[in-house]
Amino acid sequence: MGRAQAIPSLHAPAGAVQARVARFGEWLRDHQSAIRRTQWVVVFIYAALLIVPALAPLPDRTAHIWTHVTLLAQFAFWGIWWPFVLLSMILVGRSWCGLFCPEGALTEIASRWSLARATPRWMKWAGWPFVAFACTTIYGQMVSVYQYPKPVVIVLGGSTIAAIAVGLMYGRDKRVWCRFLCPVNGVFRLLSKLAPLRYRTDRAAWDAWDPETGRNGAMKNCAALVPIKIMEGAATCHMCGRCAGYKDAVALELRSPNQEIVEAFGPPPSAWETALITFGLMGLAAGAFQWASSPWFVAARQWLAGWMIEHGFTSLLEPLLPWWILTNYPDQNDMMSPLDGGLMIAYVLATAAVVGGAATALVALGARLLGPFEARRLHHLAQSLIPIAGCGVFLGLSALTVTMLKAEGLRFSFVGPARAVLLAGAALWCVWLAWQISGRYASDIARRIGAVVCVAAAVAIGVAQWVLLFWVW
Ligand code: SF4
């Protein structure tokens, strides 16, 4: 695609800062070919980090990040890429998706030559973001995706091949994969609601736009399948900039990071979103990061192993299964028996059930205190937990960064206090969101305080998972 001609926009939000932000959106619109080239560079680096380590021997104990490609790829994928992509969702919305993501770029490119079939109904099932996230998280733990390169090929490479296949089948110049099936789509949708940036359509300017005299009317392809005219919120927008200035009505703008959650922009918060926040991010993800350090896991394993030996089930204590089902690297002295694998899955699911169940029940109680029970209010109030849910996963992922840097001899005395500050800040943010949301349903102060106390208790359960992991165990 050639460089589009820069077109000044008539629509500029009030204020010099807003005008500058809007101009940046238009700058992105005018540099789509540079964005495309950048995406190819990211695709190339991604493919190299995926494939080369899988062909190289595993590193020995003397290897360093800068001397062994496997450690370099591990650090790039899990130490930098994942935690900071998550963080970027809160800072700049889904710009990663629209500007850099190799999978998004490949599925869109593939869809240029697609069969252009309509998206099937099964693919639009609202539960996919939760199910895909849960399955990927558990499978990643089963095969130790953070430690070994071949599981990375299966998890990330498999996802990329599926993205290309979906691109070749459905839509034309679209990202059907990203919209419906990407395993992190749900998480990105939730976190980007907190972003202080979004593309906004001014409906009055859109309606007043005259095709005879108006400018910027060339039809825009929104690959992310966002209905630009009625676009609300940042959850589904990939921030690619292509629609900036369209019909002199669309502009990138700064906003309050609380606005989308408090005002519940766009599609109403759903039960699946609530499940992803409480059972998925606060429960299942915490369990996945915790189990290896948990004394409860160790105690349960010892008891079960004793019971199995007594009853002649010793084969379940052997590493029977191949590496692509359960971790099995005898040379590294790193193997999981069916007992280890089964218990790990049980631990992660139990954490999801207990944490998610308790947090959901508390939020439901909070919603009830605001008036007669309504599912809509429960799901709206549950959105106030997004900061602590996202913060926990960021801390879990960044713990890998810290561990890898420690292995290189680097020590960071600020890590503990920084974790405490982040958890405290996220918890306070949740409470503030709950207070604001409660104000939309009740004016009675006592009811609002009751609802906020319930949310605060749910937040405390979320915080406790990370306190146990970082400070108690
Ligand atoms: S609405 Fe679509 S075209 Fe516009 S910035 Fe978002 S993803 Fe890009």
Overview of the structural elements:
The protein is mainly alpha-helical. It has two domains: 177 residues, no CATH class; 194 residues, no CATH class. The protein has 18 helices and four strands. The chain has a two-stranded antiparallel sheet with strand order 1-2. Helix 3 runs antiparallel to helix 16, helix 12 crosses helix 14 and helix 12 packs parallel to helix 18. The N terminus is likely disordered. The chain binds iron/sulfur cluster. Iron/sulfur cluster binds next to loops.
Q: Tell me about the largest β-sheet.
A: 2 strands, antiparallel
Report the portion of residues in β strands: under 5%
Order of helices and strands: HHHHHHHHHEHEHHHEEHHHHH
Number of helices: 18
Q: Name the overall outline.
A: globular
Strand order of the largest sheet: 1-2
Low-pLDDT stretches are 1-13
Structural domain count: 2
Mean pLDDT: 91
Number of strands: 4
Q: How would you concisely characterize the structure shown here?
A:
This protein has 473 residues and is an all-alpha fold. 61% of the residues lie in helices and 3% in strands. It has 18 helices and four strands.
